[in-house]
Amino acid sequence: MPDSAKQCADAGLIERFLEMLAAERGVARNTLLAYRSDLEAASDMLAGQLALITKDKIAILIAGWSHLANSSVARKAAALRGFFAFLEEEGMRSDNPSSALPRPTQIRALPKVLDTGEVEALFATIEGRLAKVKPAPLDYRLSALVELLYGSGLRASELVALPRTSIVGDRPYIILSGKGGKERLVPISDRARHAVGAWHAFVPRDSKYLFPSRAARASGKGDVHISRIRLFQIIRELAAESGIDPAKVSPHVLRHAFATHLLAGGANLRALQAMLGHADIATTQIYTHVDSSKLVELVNQRHPLAKHSLSR
User: Residue 104: its pLDDT value, please?
Assistant: First the structure.
């Protein structure tokens, strides 16, 4: 079979595998894009024979990954394991060569965290803007964005795509469709609902989104929302104005701050997992590093034996 035909065969199988991940497992778009890139690169390294690879040939791939970080190697290996398992399940292979793939040790990076003083500085800047005789409409937008990021822990992608009518009246929660299309209930604070209510006055009534792009607002339409990149820029500009290193602040860092400060305040880890939309409790547990003294205090004060002293 010519190399071009083999590569076409790989391409078709990769496409079917990705379609399965999207349809049956609800894998996020960014993950699908990363897997596509990894599988296509592996196919190129093997001259289009990825689907036919044997365990001994996997060494070729591993050699090509020698310059990569452990996290990148782990992702590539995960993409290949999934692909080979798919081929085996579909009857396109009688074996699975995945056991020859590496399992590099990864040290999970701790999230960047803002302390409460830094968060207060951000809100002080917003309050200063809103205290003007005639605040600018974008100041009301900024207030609503930050209240929802820090007050409810929304992901940037979830925040920018909120429908205009998602936060209404006195309903203290919204239902979000997060990663993999999974729905979750997110509480909305009184402060956030008030901030959104103030911003509502500047959102076109026929807008599809709560935070339409500037072009959409100028045209009187709201069928395009602000981008995640623009949200990132807005938050960094706020940080600089508040006297905080902009490199330290992002929408995701505010989400981390929401989780960290809530946990430090005594929140239940399972409840926090539900609010953040984490599929695995292990992802939520990363926040327990932030205030271990709080956990020790919790055990000393709340455990049934805390009030009993040991005696001879």
Answer: 78
